[in-house]
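[agent] plan:
  1. take the single chain provided in the ticket
  2. run structure prediction with default settings
  3. attach structure tokens to the ticket
  4. add a short note for the reviewer (M.T.)
[agent] executing step 1
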Amino acid sequence: MGDPPAVVASKRVHEGYLGLRVDTVRYASGREGTIDLIEHPGGVTIVPVDADGLLLMVRQYRHPCARPLLELPAGTLDPPEAPEACAERELQEETGYRPRRLERLGGFFTAPGYCNEYLHVFLATELEEGTLEGDEEAIAVERVSLDEALRLAATGGIEDAKTLAALLCYLQRR
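[agent] step 2 finished; step 3 output follows
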């Protein structure tokens, strides 16, 4: 692997929830090219496990996919929010539960070819039921055994990449 390309120019095309930047880069060969980059503040994915050992998953409509998906709770960091605080907030907003224990399992880049989003993965246990408030999203909470989640992952019942990656992090820890 050679040296990374040098950025010779950078232009912000859009600022919003996500940013879009176009970088002009020069490769070691001297050739120049452009790279479109989605800028993202990062986020969290939570693996909530209840007292019975069941995963709390959420089914929610995803507009870009034009259908509901079964996922682990997740959300975007609100800078300068710490990942742990974001995990607690998102779990409360999406499931109504608060974790008394939160353990970092790992993290990953979601789509490093065009986006800098980094997701922190947390295990949430010793869950306390609270009130379901927060997001305007229509979300249904489903309790799923790990075996069932793995079966769904293997058969296409879980199509969300962050959920698949977080399940791998959880399996590694067990």
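[agent] step 4 note for reviewer: The helical segments are 83-95, 146-155, 161-173.
[agent] ticket updated
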